[in-house]
Structure formats: C-alpha cells, structure tokens
Amino acid sequence: MAMKIRLARGGSKKRPFYRIVAADSRMPRDGRFIEKLGTYNPLLPKDSEERVKMDVERVQYWLGQGAQPTDRIARMLEAAGVLAKTERNNPQKAEPGQKAKDRAEEKATKAAEAAEAPAEEEAAAE
Questions:
Q1: Which class for 40: exposed (0-12), middle (13-18), buried (19 or more C-beta within 10 A)?
Q2: DSSP 3-state assignment of 46?
C-alpha cells in the first residue's frame, strides 16, 4: 500500500483548517485516512506554537514504514527537525514564457532597426 503523510482540509469556506494524516495515496484528499498525526492552522501567525502541532513520534514511525510526506508536510518536518533540509531549486520558474521571449526578441529587433536608421541618414547627409 502506497502511504502518504499529507494534509486533509477541514474548516468552513475561507477559514481553512488542516489535519495532518497518514493515508493511502489512492484515497481522496479529505476522505479515509489511517491515523491523524496533527493539525495545521494557516490562519495563525507564523511564529505561533499552535500553528503546527504534530505527534513527532508517530510521524517518525510512519516515515519508517515507508510513508512519503507531501512537499508541504516535508517543509513542516524540516522546520521541526525531523527531516534533513533538502535543497530546492526551480530555475525554470523565474524564466519568462515563450510568448514573452518572442515579444522581447521582436522589441530588440525593432530597437536595432531604429538605431540603424538615424545612422544611415547621417551618412547620407554628409
């Protein structure tokens, strides 16, 4: 069975509240889970003790059983000191899209043509 440690959303509209759960990866996000491992309340300030609460021993048990944490849970575990910090780098995220590259290239060619035109006029005037 493919196990995940992930967030299950609760709370009302515009007031999210999450449970940290160990669940089969094939189950729906808010569906059946095996064990509740903690809670996460994103509405609280980042420095609040109540923002993320988890049973670290049970989390370590599930990690030992082969459960994979989601990216958000992995970040929480890194902050708690359970997992080693991993280097994250997405160089493509800052790169502009294809249309923006095309527009920039077109703008550069127009600027080059505009710079050449006055130079030709000055040469013809002399």
A1: buried
A2: coil
Task: Give the whole-angstrom CA distance, residue 83 versus residue 63.
Answer: 10
Reduce the DSSP state of residue 74 to 3 states and report it. helix
79-123 per-position pLDDT tens digit: 888 888 888 777 777 788 899 999 999 999 998 888 877 666 666
Does this model's pTM top 0.70? My answer is no
Strand, coil or helix: what is 28?
Answer: coil
- Dihedral angle, C-alpha 33, 56, 39, 77, nearest 10 °: -100
Residues 75 and 111 in one domain: no
Alpha-carbon span 5 to 59, nearest angstrom: 8
Q: Tell me, what CATH number does 35's domain have?
A: 3.30.1320.10
